[in-house]
Design brief:
Elements (H helix, E strand, L loop, with lengths): L6 H22 L4 H9 L18 H14 L1 H20 L2 H8 L5 E4 L15 E5 L2 E11 L7 E6 L9 E6 L5 E3 L14 E11 L3 E2 L5 H36 L3 E2 L4 E2 L4 H30 L4 H27 L10 H8 L1 H4 L4 H12 L6
Parallel strand pairs: 1-4
Antiparallel strand pairs: 2-3, 3-7, 4-5, 5-8, 6-7, 9-10
Length: 374
């Protein structure tokens, strides 16, 4: 018997727990704590942490496979996990050894705290401030949406620079730091369990060495490290939701019957055409996701273009897939037991998560036209 740890094997062990919890997570808006603990126990919170930090040293491709699998089972859990991986990529490069070891050992959940009320979807230009105060730094901010707010152990936090030139600086802020105030429970359309809530920082004091990278270097970290991870893993989550919707639609279409005709929904050409369209859109998104990963791994000249393309392509694909799922399943789709209604709601989030689909279309157009992105 081969007992060697693999991401696929670890994911297979946790999916029953995640799947079982998904309905309650969505119904109550409860943070999927049990699922996150299962991921920690299986070694998946430390998936992309280096071996030296006690993790498994896996890269973006393995992370995408895990997020896609989670997206099929529970999109809220997938979103929490992908934000953790994005934060981990920054912490691995610039964070303290003690926190890196906690993440590698599955004992620490992190997330990003970039989006702000004033900067809207332009997350790379924060309005929050950082002011030196001896050996500490004072942070003041109004973060508008933070995944796993009040649930994560730390936040990779953006602010204006303390003294240097540049658009931003990043910090590692422990969640129990005094002065952080998390808004009430999230009660929204989709991804109801991911605890996306505003966080206000009022006179929050962190050590000067809590800075991640150089003062004023936040923009380079956001674009060079965070953006590729976020774009790819967001696309993987969308592909996972699409796969779940296709599976549920096919199950319904092949079992729901026209009794007077002695046929199922799938016996109708129009139904099959819709399902074919769903399959094509999902496969196109998956193909671009795979090519984006290959471009990043090979350092291809078109890697950044693929990074910009992959999230909007996958988000638009999952919107189309879940729209068709609702149409094929008809009135049954509006009931919870079929399951596509949850996929439909969860799919909406990718379009408006910064960088939004509209913003990314502008970036892609700029890139194709040879214009600077910023």
């Amino acid at each position: 018997m081969n007992d060697e740890w693999t991401p696929t094997g670890a994911l297979d062990r946790v999916l029953p727990t995640v799947t079982l919890a998904a309905t309650e997570v969505d119904a109550t808006g409860t943070f999927p704590r049990g699922s996150i603990e299962a991921l920690a126990g299986a070694g998946l919170l430390g998936l992309v942490s280096s071996a030296g930090a006690g993790g498994h040293g896996e890269g973006m491709r393995a992370a995408a496979a895990v997020v896609e699998g989670l997206g099929r089972a529970c999109a809220s859990t997938a979103m929490v996990t992908l934000m953790h991986y994005c934060a981990t990529a920054v912490i691995e490069a610039h964070g303290p050894a003690a926190v890196r070891a906690e993440i590698g050992g599955g004992r620490h959940l992190s997330t990003l705290a970039f989006s702000e009320s004033g900067s809207r979807s332009q997350f790379w230009a924060p309005l929050s401030t950082a002011a030196a105060n001896g050996t500490t730094v004072r942070l003041d901010a109004s973060k508008s949406w933070v995944t796993a707010a009040g649930e994560a152990d730390s936040y990779v936090w953006s602010s204006r620079p303390v003294a240097a030139e540049g658009a931003s600086t990043l910090w590692l802020v422990p969640a129990d730091t005094g002065g952080l105030r998390v808004a009430g429970p999230f009660d929204g359309l989709g991804l109801r369990g991911n605890a996306s809530r505003p966080i206000a920082a009022e006179g929050v004091s962190v050590p000067a060495d809590a800075r991640l990278g150089p003062d004023g270097g936040g923009f380079d970290l956001m674009m060079g490290v965070v953006l590729p991870w976020f774009q790819v893993l967001s696309a993987a989550c969308s592909v996972g939701i699409a796969e779940a919707a296709i599976a549920r639609t096919v199950e319904h279409a092949t079992s729901a019957r026209y009794e007077h005709l002695g046929q199922t929904l799938a016996d109708q050409p129009v139904t099959r055409a819709h399902i074919a369209s769903m399959r094509l859109r999902a496969d196109q998104a998956r193909a671009l996701l795979g090519d984006t990963l290959s471009a990043i791994e090979a350092g291809r000249a078109d890697a950044m273009l693929r990074v910009l393309e992959v999230k909007p392509a996958a988000s638009e694909a999952v919107l189309a897939v879940t729209d068709l799922a609702m149409r094929v399943c008809g009135g049954a789709a509006f009931r919870k037991e079929v399951g596509v209604e949850r996929n439909f709601r969860d799919a909406r989030a990718a379009t408006v998560m910064a960088p939004t689909t509209d913003a990314l279309h502008d970036f892609i157009g700029r890139a194709v036209c040879g214009m600077p992105l910023f």
